[in-house]
Task: inverse folding
């Protein structure tokens, strides 16, 4: 399975989601491709936010080599599932895609753990360090659900 995590800047939330899901996939012997991107261009080429790196490192995950890139229309073809970390991100993905029809692969990330909620992972960018731990926990729990749902049935773990 090829999975893309998308947020606004690709430096706070989606890099954590990329690192967490990749590690869980590897631990479960799944040959998944996991990547992340941002719908905005402010931070292209930058490593993840220092607090995102720190909270991942504290949980045994090194995301320091990841670099921010912008979500592109071509990503709709490259991935099986595209996770929007928040409502504004979902809307931006739709704008970049150019319409509603292209949205069949795009899922609100938190809907995997809270179906139908269309809830957003809070943006920690304007907050303090403890916000990054809250975001990490939310992402970690949701990635656990994703592994259970798609990784353990044996039908989608290519
Ligand atoms: P992210 O957080 O979308 O989780 O990477 C943000 C990072 C930067 C900005 C906004 C959100 N910004 O406005 O620069």
Result:
């Amino acid at each position: 399975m090829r999975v893309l995590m998308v947020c606004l800047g690709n430096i706070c939330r989606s890099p954590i989601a990329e690192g967490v899901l990749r590690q869980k996939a590897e631990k479960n012997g799944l040959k998944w491709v996991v990547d992340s991107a941002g719908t905005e261009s402010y931070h292209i080429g930058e490593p993840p936010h220092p607090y995102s790196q720190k909270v991942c490192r504290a949980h045994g995950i090194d995301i320091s080599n990841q670099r921010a890139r912008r979500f592109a229309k071509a990503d709709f073809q490259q991935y099986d599932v595209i996770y929007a970390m928040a409502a504004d991100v979902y809307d931006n993905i739709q704008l970049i895609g150019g319409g509603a029809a292209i949205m069949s692969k795009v899922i609100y990330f938190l809907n995997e753990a809270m179906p139908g909620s269309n809830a957003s992972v809070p943006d920690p960018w304007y907050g303090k360090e403890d916000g990054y731990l809250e975001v990490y926990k939310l992402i970690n729990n949701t990635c656990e659900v994703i592994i259970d749902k798609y990784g353990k049935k044996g039908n989608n773990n290519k």
About this structure: The mean pLDDT is 95. Strands lie at 2-7, 33-38, 81-84, 106-108. The first strand starts at residue 2 and ends at 7. Residues 7-13, 38, 42, 123, 125 surround 4-nitrophenyl phosphate (CB under 6 Å).
